[in-house]
């Protein structure tokens, strides 16, 4: 059993220490959606007396990040969707125990170029029709999505294959995991995608709300209609649960052993948890209620291992539902 003793994490006999945790450096990888929040945390943490701490933050994508994390190669994985069953199994095989820490909510945002004069909203059925693998090479123009839209080419943009955003987007539309067409322009960096869509009048793309906020002058978000009327992403519509099914939690996964044997990992996570709300707001995402951040600190202090998501993204989950899951975990 893993325990905190006198306010510090300690290992019991029989536990192994992974290779990266034995060093004083802090290795972080994972979601490009969560990256701006974590990068802010690193920048603010690694100043003054802590400027000597070696910290590496990459954004290989949620899926690629979990591969490294579950192999014991990184201390922290940023994730835009919950850990999946196969990743849970990989962590178990490598004796990697982790604490799951929800840090924010995101509004997965479907956007077009600001010069687009016809599209202001889109239904989830239309998005499914457009992004279904069966549409590959076939649905190429706007009027094939909705009658009345012009017979002009549509250029699709989205995250690359290692992104957890793909999994969430596909499942939210009723498609299989990774089950979207492949003939689109992809990039691992959501902010790069935001610039590309902003440069292409024929574009339609999707990525996190924070990336949209980096290029609002050149992008137009589409209101999403899942059967109850078209709703734009905003703080209000995420908090009142109206922006569905594209509201989603953003998470950190922390290797428990790394936090136990590497004081810099422990200190960084404690800093992150103590400043999450301000970091999330600065990165243009939606903070959780204060009670959620207190619960994160308790779970980290208690080395509460595991996940509340049963190994699968759960599209449509609201903030209250997430808090209830945390409370009974």
CATH-defined superfamily of the largest domain: Periplasmic binding protein-like II
Q: What structural category do the secondary elements indicate?
A: alpha/beta
**Whole-number tally of structural domains:** 2
What kind of assembly state do the chains in view correspond to? single chain
Protein name: Phosphate-binding protein
Function: Involved in the system for phosphate transport across the cytoplasmic membrane.
GO molecular function, one term: phosphate ion binding
Keywords: Phosphate transport, Signal, Transport
Written overview of the protein:
- It is a single chain.
- With 329 residues, this protein is of the alpha/beta class.
- It folds into 2 domains: 3-105 and 250-328, Periplasmic binding protein-like II (D-Maltodextrin-Binding Protein, domain 2), CATH 3.40.190.10; 109-232, D-Maltodextrin-Binding Protein, domain 2, CATH 3.40.190.10.
- The protein has helices spanning 35-45, 62-70, 85-93, 124-131, 164-172, 190-199, 209-213, 235-239, 256-261, 263-274, 276-282, 290-301, 319-328, and strands at residues 3-5, 8-10, 26-30, 55-57, 76-79, 98-107, 109-113, 121-123, 155-159, 185-187, 203-207, 219-221, 223-225, 230-231, 247-255, 286-287.
- A 6-stranded mixed sheet has the order 4-3-5-15-6-16. Strands 10-9-11-7-12 form a 5-stranded mixed sheet.
- A hairpin with a 2-residue loop joins strand 1 (3-5) and strand 2.
- Helix 1 (35-45) crosses helix 11 and helix 2 (62-70) runs parallel beside helix 3.
- The longest helix has 12 residues, at 263-274.
- The protein starts with a strand and ends with a helix.
- GO terms for molecular function: phosphate ion binding.
- Involved in the system for phosphate transport across the cytoplasmic membrane.
- This is Phosphate-binding protein.
- Belongs to the PstS family.
- Keywords: Phosphate transport, Signal, Transport.
């Amino acid at each position: 059993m893993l325990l905190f003793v006198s306010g510090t994490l300690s290992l019991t006999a029989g536990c192994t220490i992974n290779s990266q945790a034995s060093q004083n450096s802090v290795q972080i990888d994972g979601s490009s959606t969560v990256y701006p929040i974590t990068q802010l945390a690193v920048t603010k943490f690694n100043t003054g007396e802590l400027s000597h701490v070696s910290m590496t933050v990459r954004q290989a994508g949620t899926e690629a990040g979990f591969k490294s994390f579950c192999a014991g190669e990184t201390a922290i994985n940023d994730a835009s969707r919950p850990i999946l069953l196969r990743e849970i199994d990989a962590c178990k095989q490598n004796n990697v125990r982790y604490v799951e820490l929800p840090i924010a909510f995101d509004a997965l945002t479907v956007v077009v170029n600001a010069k687009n004069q016809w599209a202001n909203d889109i239904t989830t059925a239309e998005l499914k029709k457009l992004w279904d693998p069966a549409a590959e090479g076939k649905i190429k123009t706007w009027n094939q999505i909705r009658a009345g839209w012009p017979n002009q080419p549509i250029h699709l943009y989205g995250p690359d294959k290692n992104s957890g955003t793909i999994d969430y987007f596909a499942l939210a539309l009723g498609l299989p995991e990774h089950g979207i067409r492949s003939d689109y322009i992809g990039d691992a960096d959501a902010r790069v995608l935001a610039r590309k869509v902003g440069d292409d009048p024929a574009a339609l793309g999707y990525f996190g709300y924070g990336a949209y906020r980096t290029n609002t002058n050149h992008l137009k978000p589409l209101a999403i209609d899942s059967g109850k009327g078209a709703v734009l992403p905003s703080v209000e519509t995420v908090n009142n649960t109206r922006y569905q099914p594209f509201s989603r939690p953003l998470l950190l996964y922390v290797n428990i052993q790394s936090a136990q044997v590497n004081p810099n990992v422990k200190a960084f996570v404690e800093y992150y948890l103590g400043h999450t709300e301000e970091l999330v707001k600065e990165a243009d995402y939606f903070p959780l209620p204060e009670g959620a951040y207190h619960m994160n600190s308790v779970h980290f202090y208690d080395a509460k291992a595991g996940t509340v998501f049963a190994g699968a993204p759960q599209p449509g989950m609201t903030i209250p539902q997430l808090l209830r899951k945390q409370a009974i975990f």
